[in-house]
Amino acid sequence: MHGKYSKLATLIIEHLGGSKNIISVTHCLTRLRFALKDERKADTFALNNTDGVVTVRQSGGQYMLVIGSHVSEVYDAVIEVGHLEDCSNSPDEIHAQSHSKLHALFNYFISVITTVFTPFLGVFCACGLVKGLMSLLLAVDVLTETSGTYIFLYSLGDSIFYFLPAILGVTSAKKFKLPEIEGLVIGLALVYPNLTDKSFTGGSLFGIPVIMPPSGNYTQSVIPIILAVAFAAWFENKIVKKIVPDAIRQFGIPLVTLFVTFCLTLYIIGPLSSGLTYVLSVLFNTINNISPTLVGGLVGYFWQILVMFGLHWSLAAVALTNLTTSGQDTILVAMTGASFALAGSCMGIMMKTKDQRLKSLAPAAIISGLVGITEPAMYGLTLPKKAPFFRACIISSVAGAILCSLGVKAYRLSGIGILSYPEFVNSDANDVSGTIITIFVTLLCLIVGWVVELICYQDEKKSTSKPQATDLSPELTNVALPIETPKHEVIFSPIMGAIKPLTQVADAVFSSQAIGQGIAIVPTEGKVYSPANGTVTALFSTGHAIGITTDQGAEIIIHIGMDTVQLDGKGFTPVVQQGDSVRTGDLLIEFDIDFIRESGYSLDTPVVITNSETYLDIIPTDVNTVTYGDELITLL
After folding, report:
1. What CATH number has the domain spanning 485-635?
2. Which of 88-92, 114-118, 407-411 shows the highest mean pLDDT?
3. Above 60 in pLDDT, residue 39?
4. Is the pLDDT of residue 464 over 50?
5. Domain ranges of the chain
6. Are 412 and 423 in contact, with CB atoms under 8 Å apart?
7. Least-confidence region, from 235-239, 370-374, 525-529, 608-612
8. DSSP class per residue in 186-246
9. Contact 531, 493 (CB under 8 A)
C-alpha cells in the first residue's frame, strides 16, 4: 500500500461520500478528477481544509482536487485504498457517465459551450469592443452612419457576430470530431445572403415548409449550429463512412453529410433549438420585467460563484439569445460589478495585510480584475480567505440591483471589466446614459470593496505551537516546519522564449501560485531541455507536462501551454521516460508550436517550484527573454 499517502487517500474518499459515491477517477499533472454519483455528499469545506489538498474545483461534471506534483502517487493511493480499480477511466469517459441523464446532459451542455467559445473568446471580445466604440462615437456625433470610417470599422466589429454560426461551425467541429471545413460550410450556409435577406420569410424545401427562427435568420445564433454540427459528426462517423463506397469517399462522405445535415437543420434542428432559446429568453425577460432589481441582485451575487464552477456559460447563452432576439440584455448588466468588487477587495487586502506573498499577488490580481479576468483575485487572494470573496459577492449583488433598477441595458457584447462600457450605448437612440451610470456604479464597487476590506480584513493568526507530526508524506508534514539551513540552487531555462509573470497566465491554479511559485515562458521553439540535474518524477501520458526533482531537492513542473491536455498527446513528443535520470541541457520533450497555436491553445508555459514553501525565497529572472541554459530561477 502507498503508506505515506494512505491517510490522505482515506480522508479524500471519506469526504467525497465514500467509494460507492465515486463513478470514476483520473488525474492530470496536478489534479485528481472525479465524477461523483451525488456531489452533494462531498464535503467541499472539509476537503479544502485537508492537508495535501491545495484547493477544490467543480466544473463540467468533474469534481477536481488540486494536489500538486505528487498527484500520481496520491491517485495510486486513492485507487488502492478505495478499491477503485474499475473506476480509473479516461477524462472522456468521466463525462460520459452520470447517475442522472438530466444532470449529465446539463454538464455536457456546459462543457460544449465552454469548449466551442474558448478558442475565439479573445477575438470575440475585441470585435465587440470595436463595435461598441463605433456606436459610442456615433452617439456623441463624432461619426455618422454614412461616414467611411464608421462603415469600415463597424464591419470589422460586427463581422464576428454576424458570421457567428460559421465560426462556431469550425470550433464545434473540433469538439465533435467532424472535419472543420464541413462545420464551416454548415455555418456559412445558415448565413448565406439568400437566407438573411429581410424580404425572405421562409419557403419550402422539396415541398416541405421551412420555418425560420423568431429573429428572422440564423445570423448571431449559437445553439442551432452547435446542434447541427453535433448531429453531422455523429451521422458521418456512425453511418456515412460505413455506407459510402471507397471509390467516391473523398467527395461522397461530405456530400451526404452536408446535404442531410443542412436539410435536417432547416426542418427540425434550427426551428426547435431557436424556438427553445427564444422561449427561454422570453421567460427570463418576463421575470426581469416583474422585478429587475431582484434579477440584478441575484445575478450580481452568484456570477463569480458560477464562474468558479464554469456554469456562467449557461447564463451567457441566454444573454446572447437576448441580444439576437430583442437587441438588448440585462444579464451582462447585472454581472458588470463583480470584477470591480473583487479588484477593490484586493486593493484593501494589499494595503491591510502583512503577508508579503499576498502583497506580491495583489497588483496583478487588481489589474486583471479591472479588465474582467477575476481568477487571480478569486483563487489567489479572496477565496482562500473566504470572507473577502463573499463580501465582494454582496457588493456585486447591490451593484447589479442598482444598475437593473435604473434600467441600464446591454446592446452588444464587447469586452469585460472596463472594456465592457461600450456595451451600454444605445446607438439607435444615441443614448450614452447607460455607460455613464455603469462607470459611476462600477467605480463605487471598486471603492466600497477597497474600504470594506480596509475595515474588515484580518490576517490569520499564526500558531506559535510546534507542529505535530502526522503519518502523511514528508512533503505534506514539513510545510509548517522551520527551515534550519538556507538552500541555494539555480534553475536554468528549459525553453527559449519570452518571459511572462506567472500571475498573468490564464490558468488560475498557476496564476494564483496555489501549487508553487515560479515563472512562465512563451516559447519560440518547440523544445524542452532539462533545467537541472535530477530525475524525471512525473511525465503525463499526453506529453504536455513533465515533473523533475533535482539532485538538490527542488521539485519542478514544466507545463507546456494552457489546457493542452485536451490535445490528447497530439503535437507532443517526449524523448525521456518517467524515472530517467537527466542532466542539465538534456532534451526532454519536443512539441509543435504551430499546431498548438492553430488548435486554439495558449502557449504560456509555467515553470513552477512545487515545494516553494521549503525555500526562504524564490527569485525569478528579471530579463525579458531567455534561451536554453540561461539562469531562470534562483532558490534560496
Report:
1. 2.70.70.10
2. 407-411
3. yes
4. no
5. 3-97, 163-289, 293-456, 485-635
6. yes
7. 370-374
8. HHHHHT-HHHH-TT---EEETTEEEPPPTTSS-TT--HHHHHHHHHHHHHIIIIIHHHS-G
9. yes
- The answer to whether the beta carbons of residues 547 and 69 sit under 8 Å apart is yes
Q: Please tell me the predicted confidence (pLDDT) of residue 234.
A: 94
CA dist 380 and 366 (Å) reads 11
Active-site residue list: 28, 559
Percent of the chain, pLDDT > 90?
Answer: 29
For residue 508, with 0-12 CB atoms within 10 Å meaning exposed, 13-18 middle and 19 or more buried, which class applies? Answer: buried
Q: What is the pTM of this model?
A: 0.49
Cell numbers linked to 544: 504536455
- Residues 435-458 pLDDT 10s: 999 999 999 999 999 999 999 998
Q: How confident is the model at residue 61 (pLDDT cuts 50, 70, 90)?
A: low
Q: Which residues contact 489 (CB under 8 A, 6 or more apart)?
A: 532, 550, 552, 554, 634, 635
DSSP 557-585: EEE-SSSGGGGTTTTEEE-S-TT-EE-TT
pLDDT-derived band at 21, boundaries 50, 70, 90: confident
Using CA atoms, how far apart are residues 209 and 224, in angstroms rounded to an integer?
18
- Mean per-residue pLDDT over the chain, rounded: 81
**CB of 87 within 8 A of CB of 52?**
no
Grid coordinates of 435: 455607460
Distances (CA, A) of 220 to 160, 162, 388, 412: 8, 5, 38, 11
Residue 478 has pLDDT above 50, yes or no: no
Nearest-5° angle of CA 520, CA 522, CA 528? 85
Strand order in the sheet with 62-66: 22-27, 31-36, 62-66, 55-59
Q: Matching CATH topology for 3-97 and 485-635?
A: no
Place of cell 454614412: 146
Q: CA-CA distance, 493 to 585, in Å (whole number)? A: 9
Neighbouring-strand partners of residue 635: 489, 618
Q: Do residues 532 and 492 make contact, with C-beta atoms less than 8 angstroms apart?
A: yes
Closest CA to 555 of 628, 624, 474: 474
pLDDT-derived band at 53 (thresholds 50, 70, 90) equals: confident
Which pLDDT band holds residue 473 (cuts at 50, 70, 90)? very low
Indicate whether 90 pLDDT > 60. no
Radius of gyration of the chain (CA): 26
CATH code for 3-97? 3.30.1360.60
3-state SS, 124-149, equals HHHHHHHHHHHHHHHHCCCCCCCCHH
pLDDT number for residue 411 = 86
DSSP-assigned letters across all residues of 61-122: TEEEEE--TTHHHHHHHHHHHHT-GGG---HHHHHH--S-HHHHHHHHHHHHHHHHHGGGHH
For residue 95, the tally of other CB atoms under 10 A from its CB is 19
Distance, in Å, from the CA atom of 616 to the CA atom of 533, rounded to the nearest integer, reads 21
Tell me if residue 58 falls in helix, strand or coil: strand
Q: Is the separation of the CB atoms in 467 and 406 below 8 Å?
A: no
The larger pLDDT score, comparing residue 147 to residue 112, is at 147
Which neighbouring-strand residues pair with 538? Answer: 547
